[in-house]
Amino acid sequence: MFIIRQINTRTSVYIVLGVLAVVLVFQLGANIGSRRVIAPRGTHERDFYLRREAERVHPVKVAPKPQPDDEHMKMLDESRKLTPSSAKGTPYSPRVNMGACPKIFGNVIVFVAVVESSYKTHYRVAQQSLECYLKTTNYTFKLVDLDHDERVNRHCKHDQLFFKKHCAASVYLQDADWMLVLDADAGVVNPNHCIEEWIDDRVDLIFYERFFNWEIASGNYLVKNTEFARNFLMKWADWQYIQPSNWNGADNGVLQIHILQTVLPDAKAEIKACDSIWHRGTGYETYMAYVTCVKTTLGANRLFPGKLRILRRGHGWVRDGYITSDAWSERDFMLHGWKLQEINLQGWNSPFSKMFNLTECGQAYSGWYWRNEKRIGIESIRVQFANFERSVGKTFPKEARIHPYLQEPDIGDCYPHCDDYT
């Protein structure tokens, strides 16, 4: 009898506990159900639910929250204020109707380095367009003959043209606040722009990407007169003596890794990997694998405050003219690749209907004669860019389509000290 009563008592307890458990589960489910809401647009779901769970465990009394979208935008705005690289540089209003170019960044020098032999047989169209433009501005023009300029030859012992050019730029930079360095085949197609429109005073050097291959271009750049910038140019020039002897892209190839070492000096393994790929290059295809390695390592960031900025394709002051068959819009300033003495030589359908007469230049658009069909709208340029972009993407060398860095050691050469530089 005692045993039966004990069993019944124990059974009753189990039944009561079971009922309580069921009630608890339903209550918990109701609570969870009441808390399960859809994460607002623009909010990472995992972070959202973690935040909601934290509020449940540690409830606090807070003021009514704004709508999720408003809150998210406020968070983004606050984060931007805390990020130095996101602070905008000094704004500069676009030139209007060939008006003045205020010197808010100081004295700007336009620097073109040439050698006498090629200058006499090339570049007349490009250089006359530049001279006509400069007659409407207050910029200083420096046309430097690398073979005969005493100042350059006193400081620059380089015997390779392009490396000597960067040394010469460093020398003449001391005369300016900012300098626009140009290839001799870069000409002005639309004079209704000021150089300052592309100056970013958060950095000392400004480069841009070549449209057809994402390579950081070496021929045209903006540079500020600072010790950092002058040293950058001199180190770039001195790479002549240590560059690899294979197919290396000359000063353009050097620029890629020089920038990488400058802005990410602690990325030791990545720099070594890209350098190895560069040294193994045997032609354009394998060289582009090196360019891809550098681009991948740099990542999405294009602004390195206090150092340099890399403008996206098509967003610089100059671009390759052949992409649009030398058609241009009001957004364009300069086009690159004009290597002829006359506008109609070798079948070149240039943007101009007649050559420049520099005596006409200096007042507004006087001296500028364009072919009407070459001046088109910005949207038409965008469409051509988009088509060209798709085309070069499809034909990009297969050696550079993969991530060549994956075949290089990441920690194998540095373990266990790989993070010592971080």
How helical, in percent, are the residues?
Answer: 40-55%
Supply the CATH architecture of the domain at 108-245 and 255-263 and 301-376: Alpha-Beta Complex
Low-confidence stretches: 1-11, 13-17, 19-68, 75-84
Class by SSE composition: alpha/beta
Tell me, briefly, the overall form: globular
Strand content: 5-15%
Give the spatial strand order of the biggest sheet.
2-1-3-6-5-8-7
What is the tally of helical segments? 13
State mean pLDDT (0 to 100 scale).
Answer: 84
From the N-terminal CA to the C-terminal CA, the straight-line distance is 77 Å
**CATH C-level label of the domain at 108-245 and 255-263 and 301-376:** Alpha Beta
Total DSSP E strands = 10
Largest sheet: 7 strands, mixed
What is the name of the CATH superfamily of the domain at 108-245 and 255-263 and 301-376? Spore Coat Polysaccharide Biosynthesis Protein SpsA, Chain A
Cα Rg: 31 Å
The H/E string reads HHHEHHEHHEEEEHHHHEEEEHH
Question: In terms of topology, how is this protein built?
Answer:
Layout: H1 2-35, H2 45-57, H3 68-82, E1 108-114, H4 116-119, H5 124-134, E2 140-145, H6 150-155, H7 161-173, E3 178-182, E4 186-188, E5 205-208, E6 221-224, H8 227-238, H9 250-263, H10 268-279, H11 284-298, E7 303-304, E8 308-311, E9 318-320, E10 334-336, H12 378-395, H13 398-401
Helix pairs in contact: 7-8, 8-9, 9-10, 9-11, 10-11
